[in-house]
């Protein structure tokens, strides 16, 4: 199956970063719905990583609206073109490593 959805790479990269202890994931829908438990989790997270699929940056706007701390990335900055780049394990690993290196400095 060919995957060209940026939401797929977003989820896979988050899973790898979380498993490595680099970032904590919270439910974006819960934050967007202003559910206090999710907002508190995001406020207390070690690092909120936001990965958007394009420059419109919807995920970033949700965090800004809720005054939450975050570090923002856009997949197009990693040569992942929305609806054009096939999202393979190799692409996921590359983007994960690039983001990890930027976070850890």
TrEMBL record:
Native organism: Candidatus Thalassospirochaeta sargassi
InterPro entries: DGC
A Pfam family it matches: DGC
The name this protein goes by in its record: Zinc-binding protein
